[in-house]
Amino acid sequence: MRVFTVEPAPAGYSLVLHGGAGGRLSELSLDEQGRYSTGLTDAFLAGEHVLAAGGSALDAVCATVEQLENNPLFNSGRGAALTATGQAELDASVMTGDGRAGAIAVSRYAKNPVRLARKVMEESEHVLLVAPTKKLVEDWGLESVEADYFITPLRQDQLKNVQAKLLEGSRHGTVGAVALDVHGNLAAATSTGGMVNQSDGRVGDTPIIGAGNYAKDGVVGVSCTGAGEAFIEGVVAHEISARMRYAGTAVDDAVSATIEAELATRSVDGGVIAIDAAGRIVVAHNSPAMFAAYRDAEQLITLT
Ligand code: ASP
């Protein structure tokens, strides 16, 4: 397992994002690594801009995730992994540290699933909506698209190759962000197309609050990536928070102990990003590599 910890920055805010955990970086060409790195950097700067101006952690994580959703390289929004019948079925969630949450599953029409998840939190009495209609997207004033907007030729080829057993389904690409703002509030957002070749209608951990995404002010914000079933069974994001809250465990130890106890024992690899109430950042994965972006001593780090 690899664990990176960054002490709180003097600026009084913290931001970390991930772009999925998966196979070795050497599986990607240098050109591909460069393009991922640029996408991660641009998304990080979008969120950091919000936080530097005194904006909220919620606005920051949404700005970051939205950029990644619009980038077809990542497995969220346009360019999402496809189901067994070639559909793009998107899952996303947001949570603020004051205990509010919104999520969507099997979403087909919202251009930015993270925005729709936020609307569920802010405009409805619900937490999780499945298969939200195009009308709902438009009624909430969000940009809608046709379902095929999300489907790219690269993902269609990937699906064919996975189904022909020529390729293992690469898991790089699910995206998430966690932020602590200057007001001391935490937020987390996560967005995905799920696993390549998954059954139609399968829902992973991303929109399940406490599994793939969680935030609690005074404790921690968490966003996860990896085979979602294990994260649901291990209630991974909440488990990290519980270890910190009830046992007083430090964030880096809580993250690594949870990966060990809930993922390694299920023979699953994946990754976690987290920020504690002081602004300490953790990026950890037991997969060969993970895409992430964060600042360490002023330097922006991408890809781990
Ligand atoms: N956690 C996502 C899911 O299971 C996939 C991923 O993170 O790669 O839907």
What can you see in these coordinates?
Strand 8 (213-216) and strand 9 form a beta hairpin. The termini are close together. Helices cover 32% and strands 26% of the residues. It has one domain (2-303): 4-Layer Sandwich (Glutamine Phosphoribosylpyrophosphate, subunit 1, domain 1), CATH 3.60.20. The chain contains eight helices and 13 strands. The strands form two sheets. An eight-stranded mixed sheet has the order 5-4-3-7-6-2-12-13. The chain has a five-stranded antiparallel sheet with strand order 1-11-10-9-8. By secondary structure, the chain is α+β, with helices and mostly antiparallel strands. The mean pLDDT is 95. Aspartic acid binds at residues 20, 171, 174, 192, 194-195, 204-206, 212, 225-228.
List the main descriptive attributes of the protein structure presented here.
32% helix; 26% strand; five-stranded antiparallel beta sheet; eight-stranded mixed beta sheet; alpha+beta; binds aspartic acid; 304 residues; 8 helices; Glutamine Phosphoribosylpyrophosphate, subunit 1, domain 1
